[in-house]
Amino acid sequence: MNNYRLSTSTSNSETINSEEKDKLKNMTPKVKRLKDGRLLDILFNKVIHQAESSIYKILNPKEEIFIVQALREAANIVGVNIKTLSNKLNKEVLDSDEPMVNIKNFKVKRIGVFIGIN
User: Fold this and answer.
1) What is the DSSP string of 47-110?
2) Could you tell me the residue range of the domain that residue 59 belongs to?
3) CA distance 31 to 91
4) Which of 23, 51, 68, 110 could form a disulfide with 73, with the two C-beta atoms 3.0–4.6 Å apart?
5) Domain count of the chain?
6) For the segment 31-54, what is each residue's pLDDT rounded down to a tens digit?
């Protein structure tokens, strides 16, 4: 049994004062959401790969649609190496207005799951 859950905890909780609330509200963001749902670490200007913030939509040559949760799954369906697909999605999509990448007669799109959250 977990005695540290909020619903069963018997310890007193501390509240934050208005100064601390204002400090939290006015902090500069540490990450930025990209158009395709990935997170960018602003300080180091690098994509955070551990964040599962995207799904992948694949349109095969027969116009069938597949939705998968992992880049590895998308690469397997298309029949390319995961690095190849990742590089194409990173470069071609962000450098153009075309939301889908064409590779081996498949169209692949990275879709942000939490796009509406700022």
Assistant:
1) EESS---EEEEEE-TT--EEEES-HHHHHHHHTS-HHHHHHHIIIIIHTSS--SEEETTEEEEE
2) 31-112
3) 20
4) 68
5) 1
6) 888 777 778 899 999 888 766 778
